[in-house]
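Is this the right way to post structure tokens for a design question? Let me know if I should format differently. Anyway, here goes:
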């Protein structure tokens, strides 16, 4: 599976990467979280409701539920006695993953009821590590048990939005069951892209073209085109930003079945897709990102050690770039926006302070809509209520900046201040290096700035 960012890059035919490295377990792009991702069993339930053909399956959270699910799935003598057991974590590469308890693989085909229950018991409550989760892995609180579907062949199908065509685009490949990035690298011609005009909708010719690209002919092509229409209608109706089916399969009888599903939904549509957004599983997300979202902040964790708090996405990206220019690595993207309150600023500092990788905090605020004195009061509140363990470097300019400086001076807090962003970034990098060296030597450090106007001390 791939992220919406990777999908967009594939559609554009460009292998663009992000300038930073997202922290494992976090988001996939700087800026506001734009897409809610659901587990496979949740996505399948939505597809089933839309009339899309998916295997019979049951999601379980305990061994007893697994035992009951296996009995249900194998009760019909005409059904396959085999059961597919799949760990439900929001990450790709589950089949090749490993649990921290030593159990190998997040996807298993079991040939007896006892084996299926035992496999589910080894997954439930465990932590699955895949190529997309990093060493920490992600918790497996739910397991999906599904009927085994015998396949004639596997294909790839996806729908996402494309900036170039300014609408949805369907991606189809007769080669499936493996990473779309691998398919694109090995055989780009195997991937067909079909843009859809939102003004006229999906036409019969479009659906037939997709079916042909997937390798269907005759009656099977007609059946596939119908599944494509249902998938497209569901994509629009549910405000999805990405729908990925890998694999879409053809059975020996010519039936089209969607075996694995990933759906992401536009956060801006949460007000009209309440039932979907209630299914959000925050255990699969970076805790600091969950806290930031609850506070109305835009936060993405990165792998650096210099935390940033900035107002405005563009200024945040520029701040991250200038940190890297001076040899440092940003620990996050954090945009407090133009209307942040003192409470939100305090929440932002709490999030940054809880990141044990952070060695310094750089605050860069250009006061326009956002008033500098509000930021300053939030910093003061945070310092008074939190045990700030790292130095804070502050650069404030713009609306109410003099009032902000007066508040900081009156507070008596030790803050390294600088009106010049370049100099502030250099200081943040140097301070982080000092703290890192001290940590390696198991030595505690404290800071008192000595240059005129560089700090305000009690």
């Amino acid at each position: 599976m791939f992220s919406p960012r990777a999908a967009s890059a594939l559609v554009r035919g460009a292998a663009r990467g992000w300038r930073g490295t997202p922290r494992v377990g976090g988001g996939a792009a700087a800026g506001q979280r734009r897409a809610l991702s659901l587990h496979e069993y949740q996505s399948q339930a939505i597809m089933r409701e839309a009339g899309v053909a998916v295997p019979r399956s049951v999601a379980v959270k305990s061994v007893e539920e697994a035992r009951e699910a296996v009995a249900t799935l194998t009760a019909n003598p005409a059904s396959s006695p085999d059961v597919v057991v799949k760990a439900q974590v929001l990450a790709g590469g589950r089949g090749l993953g490993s649990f921290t308890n030593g159990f190998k693989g997040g996807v298993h085909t079991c040939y007896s009821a006892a084996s299926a229950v035992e496999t589910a018991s080894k997954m439930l409550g465990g932590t699955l590590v895949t190529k997309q989760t990093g060493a920490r892995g992600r918790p497996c609180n739910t397991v999906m048990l599904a009927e085994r579907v015998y396949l004639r062949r596997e294909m790839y199908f996806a729908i996402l939005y494309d900036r170039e065509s300014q609408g949805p685009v369907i991606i189809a490949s007769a080669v499936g069951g493996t990473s779309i990035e691998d398919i694109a690298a090995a055989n780009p011609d195997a991937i067909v892209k079909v843009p859809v005009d939102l003004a006229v909708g999906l036409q019969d010719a479009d659906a037939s073209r997709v079916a042909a690209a997937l390798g269907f002919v005759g009656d099977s092509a007609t059946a596939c085109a119908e599944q494509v229409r249902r998938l497209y209608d569901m994509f629009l109706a549910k405000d999805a930003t990405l729908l990925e089916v890998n694999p879409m399969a053809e059975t020996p009888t010519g039936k089209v079945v969607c075996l694995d599903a990933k759906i992401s939904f536009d956060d801006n549509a949460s007000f009209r897709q309440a039932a979907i957004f209630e299914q959000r599983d925050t255990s699969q997300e970076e805790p600091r990102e969950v806290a930031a979202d609850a506070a109305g902040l835009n936060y993405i964790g990165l792998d650096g050690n210099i935390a940033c708090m900035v107002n405005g996405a563009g200024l945040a990206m520029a701040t991250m770039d200038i940190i890297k220019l001076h040899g440092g690595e940003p620990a996050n993207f954090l945009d407090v926006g133009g209307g942040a309150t003192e409470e939100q600023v305090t929440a932002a500092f709490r999030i940054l302070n809880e990141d044990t990788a952070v060695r310094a905090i750089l605050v860069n605020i250009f006061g326009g809509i956002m008033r500098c004195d509000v930021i300053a009061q939030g910093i003061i509140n945070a310092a008074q209520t939190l045990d700030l363990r790292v130095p804070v470097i502050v650069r404030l300019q713009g609306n109410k900046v003099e009032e902000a400086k007066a508040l900081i001076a009156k507070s008596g807090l030790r803050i390294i201040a600088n009106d010049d962003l370049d100099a502030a970034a250099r200081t943040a990098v140097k301070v982080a290096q000092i703290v890192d060296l001290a940590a390696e030597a198991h030595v505690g450090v404290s800071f008192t700035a000595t240059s005129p106007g560089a700090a305000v001390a009690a």
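Format looks fine. Someone answered above. Worth noting: The radius of gyration is 26 Å. Confidence is low (pLDDT under 50) at residues 2-33, 451-458.
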